[in-house]
Write a structure and sequence with these properties.
Elements (H helix, E strand, L loop, with lengths): L2 H28 L6 H19 L2 H10 L7 H19 L2 H24 L2 H22 L5 H6 L8 H24 L15 H15 L6 E5 L5 E5 L2 E6 L6 H20 L15 H15 L3 H15 L8 H8 L16 H16 L8 H13 L25 H20 L3 H6 L4 H10 L9 H9 L6 H14 L3
Parallel strand pairs: 1-3
Antiparallel strand pairs: 2-3
The protein binds zinc ion (ZN).
Zinc ion binds next to helix 10 and helix 11.
């Protein structure tokens, strides 16, 4: 057996163990009986221990040393070696004691965050966050970075990207978004969003969502849609992809667009190359590219006028007459309504990116010790006022709203806006490759769109970083202008600006 075949056999074995963890986590969020939680925790801890041990073993280190830059590897084999080595180096650089300390600190911080958010008690959470920031700075120091400790953390979610590169992409977006937002707030035409809150039974919501997901190309013989408190999509293999949503009879759009979103993630997972399963050549590039796929189907396609030409009549028939008075234009305007708001997860397509920008800037300042945790609420509220024209009445609706920091996920937030940004740039290229894209979408035909995504993105696995992939597909590096132009082109006519 050659070194590469021994190495890749172990890599696949570990990926299969990881996929078992995925199935267990999916079950925990959907069907597991409540009393099973502690037992499930033991199962998952045992699995992650086995995975960590295998991936950082002496043997793995020897294989990687022998294979790094070795002659005679095929391009795909070289990709697999490069990516496994990258993860191995990352894990090896962080001392086990630090990993364990982070795990202890974040599990206490999670409890403290839940309590603080419930009681609007930022001072109760602050010491935990201070500890987390200090530990994450230590992690960044161990991993190493050129200019900014932020880079070392961002790299864990978006390999190869730096804070500087993010800033450069976000800059045009920020100024144009703030300008557009202020014009929209001042516009005399506003959508009637109440028509989105006409009740629809969960059964009918599911019927519509499943139909659309199947029309998009999601294979329900290779995936499922179930219910969970926090919607997600978990793919363990192209042949088995689990999506979830939640239904609220009074807010039907939340489940519908939620399923469009998860279907985008699901199509990516189903589109990975099964011949390369369990290796980096059949893994998603990054969180940002994953999110570009969900935003593509949720927003760029799912909130387009073309899409609803075909699907509004279908939705109306499910409503049994209760939506018949709503015109296509009124509906299209309502689902694209923009309103500055306090809570990120409820934000519209335009203001969402301002919520992310604010978090990104604060994280960079925290990690560079330019902002103290105790001053965070004030810095948060100040930016909310400047970017979004609203100010949270409480910290619970402000700095305490997200779970991410309590879990130590600093450097994660930018990937959401990167997803929007990549999606807009991919869509612009797709549109020039498929000139009748809107006509196809209006006719409920998504095959060419999906083929384009499969060919250009899904099948590429981790062969390129996100920035390389964008450049390869779109012909130029990632550029925030595409998202700004896409938003203006859609919103300015709606608000008659
Ligand atoms: Zn997503």
């Amino acid at each position: 057996m050659t070194t590469y075949s021994a190495f890749i056999a172990r890599v696949k074995e570990v990926a299969i163990l990881g996929s078992m963890g995925g199935a267990l986590r999916w079950d925990r969020e959907t069907y597991m009986p409540r009393k099973g939680a502690a037992h499930r925790g033991e199962q998952l801890a045992a699995l992650s221990g086995m995975i960590h041990e295998a991936m950082t073993s002496l043997q793995m280190g020897e294989w990687i040393d022998a294979l790094r830059g070795a002659d005679g590897l095929s391009p795909d084999e070289a990709v697999n070696v490069r990516e496994v080595a990258r993860e191995y180096d990352r894990q090896k650089k962080i001392p086990t004691a630090l990993v364990q300390e982070l795990s202890r600190v974040t599990s206490r911080a999670h409890e403290a965050w839940l309590h603080a958010r419930k009681n609007d008690d930022f001072p109760g959470f602050a010491p935990h966050l201070e500890r987390i920031v200090a530990l994450k700075i230590a992690v960044a120091e161990h991993i190493g970075y050129a200019d900014d400790p932020y880079d070392a953390l961002l790299d864990g979610f978006e390999p190869g990207l730096t804070a500087d590169a993010v800033r450069e992409m976000f800059a045009p977006l920020q100024s144009q978004t703030v300008e557009l937002l202020h014009a929209i707030v001042g516009s005399t035409v506003q959508p009637d969003e109440s028509l989105l809150r006409r009740p629809l039974s969960p059964k009918k919501q599911r019927e519509f969502a499943v139909q659309v997901a199947a029309d998009f190309g999601f294979d329900f013989d290779a995936g499922r849609l179930d219910i969970s408190a926090h919607p997600f999509c978990a793919g363990s293999h192209p042949s088995d992809v689990r999506m979830t949503t939640r239904y609220n009879e009074q807010e039907p759009m939340s489940a519908l667009f939620g399923v469009f979103h998860e279907t985008g993630h699901g199509l990516y997972e189903q589109g990975l190359d099964p011949d390369h399963a369990y290796t980096p050549c059949a893994e998603a590039v990054s969180l940002g590219v994953h999110e570009s796929q969900s935003r593509m189907w949720e927003n760029i396609i799912g909130r387009s006028r073309a899409f609803w030409i075909g699907y509004l009549p279908k939705l109306k028939s499910l409503y049994g007459g209760a939506l018949d008075d709503v015109s296509l234009d009124a509906f299209h305007f309502a689902i694209n309504g923009v309103k500055p708001s306090l809570i990120r997860v409820e934000a519209d397509e335009l203001t969402y990116n301002l919520h992310i920008l604010l978090r990104f800037e604060l994280e960079v300042e925290l990690l560079n010790r330019r902002l103290a945790v105790t001053d965070l609420p004030e810095a948060w509220n100040d930016r909310m006022r400047r970017y979004l024209t609203v100010e949270p009445p409480t910290d619970a609706d402000g700095v305490l709203q997200d779970i991410h920091w309590s879990g130590g996920a600093l450097g994660y937030f930018p990937t959401y806006t990167l997803g929007n940004l990549f999606a807009a740039q991919f869509a612009a290229k797709m549109r020039s490759d498929l000139p009748d894209m809107d006509a196809q979408i209006a006719a409920g035909r998504f095959g060419d769109v999906l083929d384009w995504l499969r060919r250009n993105i899904h099948r590429q696995g981790m062969r390129y970083t996100s920035a390389e992939l964008v450049e390869r597909v779109a012909g130029e590096p990632p550029n925030g202008d595409y998202l700004a132009v896409y938003l203006r082109d859609k919103l300015a006519p709606l608000y008659r600006l």
